Amino acid sequence: MQKKVIALAVAGILAAPMAAQAGVEVYGKARLSFGSITNDDSASNHDKNKLAVSSHASRLGFKGAEDLGNGMKAVWQIERGIDFTDKTGPSGSDLSTRNTFAGLTGDFGTALLGTHDTPYKISTGSLDPFGDTFADYNAVIDSTQDARSANVVAYISPSMSGFTVAAAYVTDFVNDNLPDTTTTSATDKKKQPAISLAGMYSNGPLYAALAYQKVNETSATCSATKCEDIKGVKLGVGYKINQFNLGVVYEKVNASNSVDQKNAYISGVMDMGSGMNLKAAFGKKGNPTSMSNADAKFFALGVGKNMTANTELYALYTSIKDGVNATTAGVGAYGLGVGNQPIGAAGPVGGESKAAAFVVGINHNFSSM
Question: Which residue among 152, 203, 261, 266 has its CA within the 20 to 30 Å range from the CA of 146?
């Protein structure tokens, strides 16, 4: 679990080929599930249940490296998300940009430019055993902060006795790299810069991370001269006890409308041997400031079987239940997450709602090297 963090941080680029001019590696992940998805609440006409084939952050990528001498390499990656269930073609929604960048790596660490997971997102990704499924921990952990961004300038240090630092500056979190032509509207501010910092420590059975992120908001809640910052602080701890991996994440975020919220998530994975593992997770989105019954409770239970190093079969059940006030103004309904794309659980104001999924799935990784 702990080793995955550094791999996530540099997206595998430190494993580049040793040749002066290496070939291009083609790689990807096919992540699909089939099963029952429900989205029901207190309004009788909102009850829904359907069987569906779903694609969960499936992707196709290309990456490579060139040896520059003196222990330094130029690295690059182009990665696109692919929806295996979208038949509309390239002009539709089946393609999306994932970590896509160019940079330098060496004894000093890795520096990159482009689109990449923020350090805030990287810091606790390895503590989510249900990543990129219906039980993804973004059902609980704030997906507006725990996110990927364009316009990133990032640095990731080498491991220093188990300690790694990651820092990123985002020139514009709203993916706009052009100067604005007007600032007459509160929703048309010049830019939305962000900073993201994380410190991660991995040593034997222990993993710990602390992350901070601040985004300059540009929403309609801005005053005529100033926008309120959106801030997030996140603490993650992982510990391995024999064949059991425990993960805990605690987060405090504040939104542009001055609503603070505290979120908590805990997961456990038991290695049963022969490639079998049992997974469970619990989480809670706290009540926003000055609100009651606007929280949500999350649960996931799953079993996986690693058929090979590249192929996993799994089954899982997951659900999230919203408080009766979760759809009040400024909060919105909470749903299950597929990566950073929540689904379901939308209910009427004052109506308790629930979303659930019971599916079987396959995760297959492939690479030309």
Answer: 203
194 contact partners, CB below 8 Å, separation of at least 6: 118, 149, 169, 170, 173, 213, 214, 215, 216
DSSP run (H or E) holding 74: strand 72-82
Statement: residue 95 has pLDDT above 60: yes
23 sits in the region (left: phi over 0; alpha: psi -120 to 50; else beta) called beta
String of DSSP letters for 347-369: --TT--EEEEEEEEEEEEEEE--
Determine the Cα angle at 336 with ends 335 and 342, to 5°.
70
Q: Where are the alpha helices (DSSP H) in the chain?
A: 3-10, 119-122
Residues 6+ apart with CB under 8 A from 289: 258, 259, 260, 261
Distance CA 285, CA 268 (A): 19
Cα–Cα nearest to 264, from 284, 235, 293, 282: 284
Distance (Å, whole) CA 157 – CA 60: 27
Residue 15: closest CA among 70, 58, 77: 77
pLDDT digit string, tens, across residues 181-200: 444 444 445 567 899 999 99
Give the number of other Cβ atoms within 10 Å of residue 94's Cβ: 18
**pLDDT of 180 above 60:** no
pLDDT, tens digit, 9 for 90 and up, residues 19-30? 445 689 999 999
Q: How far apart are CA 157 and CA 335, in angstroms?
A: 35
